[in-house]
Design brief:
Length: 485
């Protein structure tokens, strides 16, 4: 952007009667943490208000917008050995374009940060989302009415409302979208004739009429109900991959399969395929032997569905993936979680793809809000499997389910994770974890309460649980609750 153009923008900003929610004026304050929080707040406010850009401007007096100049030199500022600009970029999610401009105005230095608005999901800095309320910066979660309004505004420009195929004839729509399965899953009667079918698909928000016998197919229609996703070039890389390995590492691949159908019409086949590739144990009944998968199907269904629903479609070149190893199964999706990993069991879930999530719930592919992960952990405890491990990488979310392990085979992380998740389940059931309940969870012998006490103390030291106020001094009689309870 030329200096002349920047000068014109600055003139317009200075004419604003007061500081607005998408502009921040400063003189010399240059704390990097505060700058990152303001970038998040201003990007989110711009997304809420429909602004194309937000600004932080140094060298301008706040109350009267006079040019006073600044000593702030952003390109020279470092945090440790890292340039501030790179440092900020690493802590912003989703990755956000902001541009630094320096110019001379009335013989004084002015610095301008040009910030793109939030698009699909609120912008967070260092794991926290911010918003402007008037001229004040607030945590987004502390202003629920703004949070709700922001999500509503972002949904209008969401992935689901994007176009997967433009201006095609009605018959082509019916050739691309598995409408019989669509109506079955949505619990709708089959309309009479082609026109009735197309009209109902439009009412469901899956397609849109754009002329005489001309239709656009929205991403939501294609990603859920496509006969074959590879017929939609923009969605081809969003097909789920299932990879089976020979051992405990990725050295030897036994089989790799890539899903073809839309997520909804292909979901039952996907789960059946995964279950068919999993190792199993032999269960002996009164008269018959049968092979039982080592992972509960409820857990597989919920975790795979979550990976599909909560992925970040804006991350290109990658999609959801299930990897099956000899000793574990890893389910990965693009995008970082929108809530704390430790609060998956008690927080109301949030999705960056709310329309997709709503459709999947309507078709009973995912659980009602707030129950899916609880049921997953409950089933894993019932099967007495090691606790699943939820992790966030730089750009992905991964959950790992483990094959059976004895207590002796579990490391400290396994034990602490199981103890914390057990405490969460007990709390959500209006109960409290005890030494006895933990022994039952981890199949610890009834007389071996010191081992359970050791695990409880390890989990307290990790900051994940605390002692409930029961007034008991006995380790065996104490009750424990999650750290957030």
């Amino acid at each position: 952007m030329t200096d002349e153009r920047l000068q014109g923008i600055l003139t317009d900003l200075r004419r604003l009667p007061k500081e607005v929610e998408w502009v921040e004026f400063k003189e010399n304050k240059d704390d990097p943490q505060e700058i990152g929080e303001y970038i998040s707040a201003l990007a989110n406010s711009a997304g809420l208000l429909g602004k194309n850009v937000a600004w932080i401007v140094w060298g301008i007096k706040d109350h009267n917008h006079d040019v006073v100049g600044t000593t702030f030199k952003p390109r020279q500022k470092r945090i440790g050995n890292e340039e501030m600009e790179n440092w900020l970029n690493h802590l912003l999610y989703p990755r956000l374009n902001f541009r630094i401009h320096e110019l001379e105005v009335e013989g004084k230095t002015v610095v301008m940060f040009e910030i793109d608005p939030a698009i699909d999901t609120p912008v967070r800095f260092s794991g926290e989302e911010y918003i402007r309320v008037g001229s004040y910066k607030k945590k987004l979660r502390d202003v629920p009415q703004k949070e709700k309004a922001l999500w509503a505004a972002l949904a209008k420009g969401s992935f689901e409302s994007g176009i997967a195929m433009r201006s095609i004839r009605g018959q082509q729509v019916l050739d691309l979208i598995d409408y019989p399965e669509c109506f079955r899953l949505l619990g709708l009667p089959m309309p009479d004739g082609r026109t009735g079918i197309l009209d109902q698909l439009a009412k469901e928000g899956l397609i849109e009429s754009v002329g005489t016998d001309k239709y656009d197919i929205f991403n939501i229609g294609a990603i859920l109900f496509a006969y074959s996703l590879d017929r939609f070039p923009s969605l081809d890389r969003k097909r789920i991959r299932v990879i089976e390995y020979q051992g405990k590492d990725r050295v030897h691949t036994m089989k790799e399969q890539e899903g073809a159908k839309g997520y909804a019409v292909g979901f039952e086949g996907l789960i059946s395929y995964i279950n068919g590739r999993l190792p199993s144990n032999e269960e002996i009944g009164q008269a018959l032997r049968r092979e039982v998968p080592i992972y509960p199907e409820i857990a597989i269904r919920e975790l795979v569905a979550n990976a599909l629903v909560h992925q970040d479609f804006s991350i290109s070149g990658t999609g959801p993936m299930v990897e099956i190893f000899k000793d574990r199964m890893e389910i990965t999706n693009p995008g970082l979680p929108l809530i704390d990993l430790l609060r998956f069991m008690d927080e109301q879930p949030r999705s960056r793809n709310e329309i997709l999530a709503k459709k999947m719930r309507r078709m009973k592919i995912v659980e009602e809000r707030g129950t899916g992960i609880d049921k997953t952990i409950t089933q894993i405890e019932f099967f007495q499997l090691p606790a699943p491990d939820f992790q966030a990488t730089t750009t992905h979310t991964k959950v790992t389910m483990f094959a059976p392990k004895t207590l002796a085979q579990m490391d400290k992380g396994d034990r602490v994770r199981a103890c914390y998740q057990h405490a969460c389940l007990r709390w959500l059931a209006s109960d409290r974890m005890s030494n006895a309940s933990l022994r039952e969870r981890l199949a610890i012998g009834k007389g071996n309460y010191p081992m359970a006490t050791k695990i409880l103390n390890e989990t307290i030291e990790a900051g994940l649980i605390r002692i409930a106020d029961t007034g008991s001094d006995s380790n065996r009689d104490r009750r424990y609750i999650p750290y957030w309870a």
